[in-house]
């Protein structure tokens, strides 16, 4: 996100030198810079406690392929809470442990994607209206179900590299 106008007062911003950062869009009225940023999101591997299986979802508005539970970090929320909240909202499962693994940048939507591994209690999948379907798959061969080179697939492969080493 690049700011041209002040998101607080609507004034046109002008570039102002800001130390080591170089020129940053600045609002003369509010007296502050507005740094460009990428939206923080979480992407969650929903894994059974024993690492045997992973729950993947389908969301027609996102992709034809299976994807992971994901969502935007709300203002004032910490990403660990976002991850637990999204897993509950999208597939109705309780997260037992939530660990950060790695971050990814998704240029198409200017998203900074924080990858979490959410160990969940395997129970009935209760889907939100945003989710078309969800299913459990054996963890070790689930990568082929995800779009080649996608953040979802990279996150899964990065997790497999950790647990299989
Ligand atoms: Zn302003």
What do these coordinates show?
- The chain is an alpha+beta fold and 165 residues long.
- The chain is built from two helices and nine strands, in the order ββββββαβββα.
- Strands 4, 5, 6, 7, 8 and 9 form a six-stranded mixed sheet that branches. A three-stranded antiparallel sheet has the order 1-2-3, with no helix packed on it.
- β7 and β8 form a beta hairpin.
- The radius of gyration is 19 Å and the shape is elongated.
- The chain starts with 13 loop residues before the first strand and ends with a helix.
- The structure holds zinc ion.
What letter string, H or E per element, gives the SSE order? EEEEEEHEEEH
Low-pLDDT sequence parts: none
List ligands, each type once.
Answer: zinc ion
Got a strand count? 9
Roughly what is the average pLDDT, rounded to an integer?
95
- How large, in whole angstroms, is the Cα Rg? 19 Å
Distance between the termini: 38 Å
**Which structural class matches the secondary elements?**
alpha+beta
């Amino acid at each position: 996100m690049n700011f041209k106008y002040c998101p607080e007062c609507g004034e046109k911003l002008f570039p102002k030198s800001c130390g080591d950062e170089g020129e940053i869009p600045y609002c003369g009225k509010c007296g502050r810079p507005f740094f460009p940023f990428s939206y923080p999101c979480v992407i969650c591997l929903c894994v059974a406690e024993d690492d045997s299986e992973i729950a993947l979802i389908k969301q027609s508005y996102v992709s034809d392929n299976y994807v992971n539970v994901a969502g935007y970090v709300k203002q004032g929320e910490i990403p660990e809470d976002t991850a637990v909240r999204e897993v509950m909202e999208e597939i109705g499962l309780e997260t037992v442990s939530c660990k950060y693994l790695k971050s990814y940048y998704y240029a198409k939507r200017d998203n900074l994607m924080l990858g979490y591994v959410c160990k969940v209690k395997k129970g009935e999948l209760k889907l939100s209206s945003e989710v078309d379907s969800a299913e459990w798959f054996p963890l070790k061969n689930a990568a082929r179900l995800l779009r080649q080179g996608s953040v979802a697939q990279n996150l899964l492969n990065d997790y497999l590299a950790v647990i299989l080493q």
